[in-house]
Write a structure and sequence with these properties.
The structure is a single chain. This protein has 293 residues and is an all-alpha fold. It has 13 helices and 2 strands, in the order ααβαααααααααβαα. The longest helix is centred in the middle third of the chain and has 29 residues, at 102-130. It is elongated, with a radius of gyration of 22 Å.
Amino acid sequence: METHHHENQIHPGRIPHWRLVCNPGLCTQVVQSHHFEGHGTEDSPYVVGWLDSDPRNPYNWSLPRRALITCCISASSFAASLSSSAYTGAAKEVEQLFNVDTEVVTLGLSLFVLGFVVGPVLFAPLSELYGRQPVFISTYGTLAIFNAGAAGSKNIQTLLVLRFFAGVAGSSPLTNAGAQIADMYGPRLVGLAMSTFIIAPFIGPALGPIIGGYIGQNVGWRWVEGFLALFTGAMWLLGTLFIPETYAPVLLRKRAQTLTKASQPRRIYVRTFAAQKGLRFGSSELMTMLRCS
């Protein structure tokens, strides 16, 4: 059920979008003045959770804001999946230029898709530890760089290696996009949002050979990779500017860290999940938990 509450003291729309993107640990004045459960000591820290109508809770964002983020997520997934198959549109030219067999050129597609298999093993756990946003920014930027490198390849070996690593990096939005959408929508709307997103990973490979073939026929195979580099670079910039952190445990951890640093005299805050584990906090264990829990 969607958790939209209406209180006069806080309203989700009062935080500018750029602040949500730039400051995952953002604390409003209401949050800073709220008395959380606990005593603020190492043995009994304050337990930080969401407030009613909390503007940093992704469930409380306005529907247009969540729709915008969903569109950005879908576009980034489309660009990643397009990168897998657009390469095949200029495969014949690659075969002739590097004087290799068709099977070798086809490895450029196979290795990219193999990267889709390897990447989720790394990026899914990392997004649970550090959040969706830093994983997207680092991996999607890497995808654009590898696509650009592939455009300048001097031999088939370099092209194949770069295609593989581009696939590894490009798996990140496909791996974490569903989780990002689930972070923002309750049961009433998550199905609709997910069905809108799921079109992107399937339409990309279908359009890839058409787009790649058109570009390759007119300006050459390097511009196929160049187009993919520009397109994924644009999607990286779009996602960096418009997709905020959505994973609640990471947001609450950063909030707890912000409140701990800002407290005078010093008080200890932890996020709800850490407190529910029943942990007791010595100084070293507490600092480790604050960084990584």
